[in-house]
Write a structure and sequence with these properties.
Metallo-beta-lactamase, Chain A, 6-stranded mixed sheet, 16% helix, globular
Length: 218
């Protein structure tokens, strides 16, 4: 079974997750933000390599640490949902870093950027399932491995999902929430892109699309 750690970032308090296995020296990063805490965690836990970066979507607050990851691990692969998600890596306006109090985030054209398939082998006998869940953005995905579900900004505890940004679509979000509804009863632990973790079973998924529910300012 894999292990994970959640690190809260300084930009919009987004979450970065580190996926690891006790018998493996290499880790995977989900939505890298502040990188120094990642390096500190890896050193403290005897980890020495980053195998790849798994993005839930391409907004800057979920990827602004990528360039520092690539400085240390230039062969590291970056996984995105589709060509639109890929384009966000190379355009500061599209990923919104241009409009934020942060330097423009533009990834090198030499980066190894790959598109998700329906599944991805993380380690021998450990497979990540990829659920394509547009709505918050055109390139949003949810990532399921073991009993963990990484939802990015598609599902945040007790909040309505933001659809007002470029690439957002309320109708697509409703379809994506129905996909997540099929996962009820599996005992999944949700690791969202912001705020605290929670259990999917028993959670009211209608909050994500309820116009009267509170919304995080992203």
């Amino acid at each position: 079974m894999i292990q994970f750690a959640r690190l809260v970032n300084t930009q919009f308090t987004s979450n970065t997750y580190i996926l690891s296995k006790e018998d493996e020296k290499a880790v995977w990063l989900v939505d890298p933000g502040d990188i120094q805490p990642v390096w500190q965690w890896m050193q403290a836990h005897g980890k020495s390599e980053v195998l790849g970066v798994l993005l839930t979507h391409g907004h800057f607050d979920h990827l602004y640490g990528i360039n520092k990851v690539l400085e240390e691990y230039p062969q590291c692969s970056i996984y995105v949902a589709n060509e639109y998600g890929k384009s966000l890596l190379f355009d500061a306006r599209k990923n919104n870093s241009y409009y934020a109090p942060i330097e423009d985030i533009v990834v090198s054209s030499a980066a190894d950027v790959r598109l998700y398939n329906n599944s991805l082998a993380l380690w021998p006998n450990v497979t990540l399932k990829v659920l394509f869940t547009p709505g918050h953005s055109e390139d949003s995905v949810c990532l399921q491995v073991d009993n963990l579900l990484f939802t990015g900004d598609t599902l945040i505890h007790n909040l309505r999902t933001v659809t007002k940004l470029r690439g957002g679509d309320t109708l697509k979000l409703k379809d994506s929430i129905e996909i997540l509804r099929t996962l009820l009863g599996q005992g999944l632990h949700v690791c969202p892109g912001h705020n605290e973790e929670f259990e999917l079973d028993g959670y009211d998924l209608r909050k994500a699309i309820n116009a009267k529910a509170p919304v995080k300012d992203l």
